[in-house]
Amino acid sequence: MLTKIFIKNYILIDELELDFSNGLNIITGETGAGKSILINAIDIAFGAKTGKEVIKTGADKAIIEITIQNEKQDITKLFEDNGIDLYGSEIILSKEITQTASRSRINGCLVNQEFIKIFRELFLDIHSQHQTYSFLQPKYHITLLDSYIKHHNITDYRLEYEKYRDLSNQLEVLKKNSQKAEEQIDFLRFQVEEIENAELNSITEDEDLNNELSILENIEKLKELTGSSYWTLSEDDNSILNVLFQIKATITKASGLDKTLEPMQSELISAIESIKDVSSGLRDYSQSLENDTERINEIQERLFLLEKLKRKYGGTIEKVIETGLKLRAELDGIEHSTQNIEELENQINKIRQNIEKQAIEISDMRKTHAKELSLQIINKLEKLELPKVKFEIGFEACELGINGIDKVEFLISTNISEGLKPLAKIASGGEISRVMLAIKTIFAQSDNIGTVIFDEIDTGISGKTSQSVADEVKELSKFMQIIMITHQAIIASKSDKHFYVRKTQNDKTNVDISILGNEAKLKAIAELAGGEVTEESLNFAKTLIN
């Protein structure tokens, strides 16, 4: 259950801290005082969409922090799997809303919206006017019924159906591709063969070939340049090496007279050896050069092919190779599509047979539990002053889908003279409120949720019906914490803790929420009953409380 809430800079609230009790927590106040602000803050903390507009004017951020006492749910694994520390049974949920973003934390750890959604389903159920609209929609009824049944077969079926649907989508894509294949496979095969027949192995082949071609086309010039260089270095009478040998002999004599010249002698010897190596290399290179017209033609033909492929498939050899691999994969996929289609069709048929069997079993199970649920709802509605009510859960067969083969709709008659009609056709707001209360109380108990919030569930009721609703809500509060906004004195009189909301407008508008003591509670109930606090309304309020 919720034990405490702290709110700061939220809409019209500067700063507020409240302690909730177990049992029935009632919220009252004048019309327009801002009673729903507290409920909305709780809703936002538990993951409802929000934006910077909830930040109080002049503030940088809004903060909502809720303390939860966990009495029913085993959350150890959930918290461990998400790296959240667990400190006994107390949980701190906080929401920070800034001008640009909002962040949720549980026990100080940041959590995402998906986690908050799971967390909310374990601890809180809010019934609002918006949810009433959802309850009335037939598409939501099968979800309600399934959540009442809570059988793993339904979850398993939905997972298997999603697999069936995904594979069916894949099959459709394969069949479309197969149809295209007849039109494009010949051209695709031509492209693949054109690239693969080129036997491209190096992404620098064109650069390497151009370099080799440059050598072959300038071979005479290269022979002349390297040959003359070799002759100048070694073979001429006045060659560089001969001159260096003479200098070496001179330096050798000089170093014999002065040892400090020996390092220069060593460097000279090293230079001579390097030049001898260069000279030998030039000689060998010059002698190796031969005219090769045939190789020139081969290179030119190869370069022509490479340029053609680059123009068609990407601009570089690397891109051509990548395109070839991609086209090959596409071709292989198309060529094997027939086989893949047959295998996929067999797999899909097996899954469909299985889920069809599951859908029939689930349909039978739903119909059995639907009778049980209908009886429970009728029992609740009779206690809520609808003694002649009839309620059934109608079934209609439909095509196999995510929910099986059932189309479900809640049907009701609140008057003995009328037949069953869809829930959405109920005209009376008071009747709708009671149906929603009946459904909500049944589902809240089966869900094992710690806190249920009713936002003006008493709309459209009065008198004896109000007493019945009050008794039902009070009975429910024995099993779980109830937080409820009400305009009914009879319902408010049942509170274990009474909160009063007031709006003040001086230089600025502010909403304040206070916890009422016995005397203040009596006056608040008297005000609800009579519109103002008088001796008569106070006496009536005393009879309600006592």
Short summary of the structure?
The chain has 546 residues and is an alpha/beta fold. The chain has helices at 35-45, 76-81, 113-123, 129-136, 138-149, 152-197, 205-217, 219-235, 240-257, 262-288, 293-313, 317-335, 337-383, 429-447, 463-476, 489-492, 518-530, 535-545; strands spanning 2-10, 13-19, 24-29, 62-69, 90-97, 102-106, 109-111, 124-127, 390-401, 404-413, 421-422, 451-455, 481-485, 497-505, 509-515.
What does this structure look like?
It contains 18 helices and 15 strands. It has 546 residues and is an alpha/beta fold. Among the domains are: 1-127 and 449-515, Rossmann fold (3-Layer(aba) Sandwich); 204-315. It has a six-stranded antiparallel β-sheet. Helix 9 (240-257) packs antiparallel against helix 10 (262-288). It is elongated and about 140 Å long. The two termini are 27 Å apart.
Give start-end ranges of low-pLDDT stretches. none
CA radius of gyration is: 44 Å
Report helical residue fraction: 55-70%
CATH first level of one domain: Alpha Beta
**Which CATH architecture of one domain?**
3-Layer(aba) Sandwich
Q: Considering the protein shown, what is the CATH homologous superfamily of one domain?
A: P-loop containing nucleotide triphosphate hydrolases
The main sheet comes to: 6 strands, antiparallel
Briefly note the CATH topology name of one domain: Rossmann fold
Strand coverage percent? 15-25%
Major beta sheet, strand line-up: 2-1-4-5-6-7
Q: Categorize the overall geometry.
A: elongated
| Total beta strands | 15
- Structural class label: alpha/beta
- What's the total helix number? 18
Average pLDDT number:
87
The rounded distance between the terminal residues' Cα atoms is 27 Å
